[in-house]
Amino acid sequence: MFVGRERELASLNRLYTSDQFEFTVIYGRRRVGKTALINQFIRGKKAIYFMGVESNAKQNLENFSRSIMEFGTGIQADTAFASFQAALEYVFKLAEKNRLILVIDEYPYVARSSKSLASTLQLLIDQYKDRSKLMLILCGSSMSYMEDHVLAYKAPLYGRRTSQMKVLPFDFADTCRYFKNFSQEDKAMIYGMVGGTPQYLLQMDDRLSVEENIKNTFLNPTSSLFEEPENLLKQEVREPALYNAIITAIATGASRMAEISTKVGEDTSVCATYLKNLMALGVVQKETPYGEKAARKSIYAIDDNMFRFWYRFVPENHSIIGRGAADLAYKRIEPHLSDYMGKVFEEICKQYLWKLLLNDESPVQFKELGRWWGTDPSTRSQTEIDIMGEQNKDIALFGECKWTNEKVDAGVLETLVRRSKIFHYSEVHLYLFAKNGFTKGCVETAGTMENITLVEYKNLLEKIME
Predict the structure, then answer these.
(1) Which of 141, 170, 233, 432 could form an SS bridge with 30, CB 3.0 to 4.6 Å?
(2) Checking phi first, is residue 392 left (phi over 0); if not, alpha (psi -120 to 50) or beta?
(3) What letter does residue 335 receive in the DSSP assignment?
(4) Domain total for the chain?
(5) Residue 289: helix, strand or coil by DSSP?
């Protein structure tokens, strides 16, 4: 089942209809759906699709030759081109009069085995681009390789591409489209567990409860998700053990550099390098309080929901999971799920606010959204604001998000009002988000104010899905 990716497909189709040489670079993390996107795009079009393998140049050249011959004759052939240059030149000539797509998927595998491939492509692009109707797509899952050896300024192919596309996990709305049978609350829970990565969403069964899905995947030693984070790290980094330790430290509460360093027993300079790589992989994010740039206030959080869920709950229960005690492991996890979902709900609420902005329905034309934390001068205590966005020095919005079974009362609204006054904007708009609605007192208090919007999760979901 193919879901979403409307913008990506529209961009690729625009390039396809240009009827001139196009060179697109598609990259993104493993399992994010790059190959599915490409296959959807080339369906019904004249295309040569070739996926590189982690082997030597001879094997990849033979496979590439086979893909070209199958396109030309419709039958398998054992004939191989003498070189990648000969094979690619043949394809460029095929596309001199008619539109043709050439896809080289998992390009890093091919390029690593054939060191001259990038220079060969550079030579042929320069030679044929003005008279070729070829649409060349290079796709790769190794983020560092694609950025350093394809997109970077010093790379041989720099300046030749006509577009690039970083494929990201689905947002919450597209994630919901995967499932027909989950309840509204369950959809948020599933998003909190595996995020928007298509390959992980396919592991979820909407005919079962969230509890059963957790037991069948994260708490099942035979499930592909049980070892997925560690396997991904092994594919992407050289020292997975230290990366594992750093992610575990963050997942269990260490958020500042000094805390992470102490917990893993390494110098901060070493941790900084590893954290930079984890951020490049999209596993970890670095945050500073909204509107501030002070590095000393920076904190680190796990950015990928599947990694966050796995590292929060699996390692500490690893021994009992290994003994097949999924029920016992779930009993230990279940009391913490609501608290875990707090950060997930904040992200969903941000996506709702972005939807309002893009629909021209937001009272504040913010440029970005973020969290703020710091000292409240009125109470001289540390405080936090879940969501903040600024239009200019005079206008801003503030949001508070509550993923609890209880209805949100007027006290939460009054706290949000007080925190918004830490800043001195002349016009503020407040959003209070709740999983299960608001008390009568909260609704009445909000009714006396012109700048407050109460949003219940079920209404948020309807809006996001429009």
Answers:
(1) 141
(2) beta
(3) G
(4) 3
(5) coil
**184 domain residue, yes or no:** yes
pTM reported for the whole predicted model: 0.91
Cα distance between residue 110 and residue 330, in whole Å: 43
Domain identity same for 325 and 391: no
Q: What angle do CA 211, 212, 217 make, to 5 degrees?
A: 105
Same structural domain, 216 and 150: no
> Which residue range forms the structural domain that includes residue 183?
173-340
CATH code at position 154: 3.40.50.300
Residue whose token pair is 């006290």 = 411
The pLDDT tens digits of the residues spanning 244-287 come to: 999 999 998 899 999 999 999 999 999 999 999 999 888 999 99
How far apart (Å, rounded) are the C-alpha atoms in residues 279 and 394? Answer: 33
One DSSP character per residue, 174-189 reads HHHTT-SSS-HHHHHH
The CATH number of the domain where 398 resides is what? Answer: 3.40.1350.10
Question: Which of 76, 453, 30 has its CA nearest to residue 237?
Answer: 30
Q: Would residue 356 count as lying in a domain?
A: no
Question: Higher model confidence: residue 365 or residue 71?
Answer: 365
Question: Could you tell me whether strands 395-402 and 427-434 are parallel, antiparallel, or unpaired per DSSP bridges?
Answer: parallel
Last residue of a domain, one of 145, 166, 187: 166
Based on the fold, state whether residues 194 and 330 are members of the same structural domain.
yes
* Phi, psi (rounded to 5 degrees) for 160: -95, -30
> How many CB atoms neighbour CB 387 within 10 A?
23
Q: Which of 121, 142, 166 is the last residue of a domain?
A: 166
Question: Does any domain span residue 345?
Answer: no
pLDDT at 238 over 90: no
Task: Look at 289-298, 313-322, 364-373, 384-393 and tell me which has the smallest mean pLDDT.
Answer: 289-298
| Residue 280 shares a structural domain with residue 384 | no
> Which candidate, 161, 84, 152, places its Cα nearest to that of 115?
84
User: 3-state SS string over 275-324?
Assistant: HHHHHHCCCEEEECCCCCCCHHHCEEEECCHHHHHHHHHCHHHHHHHHCC
Q: Give per-residue pLDDT as tens, 301-340.
A: 999 999 999 999 999 999 999 999 999 999 999 999 999 9
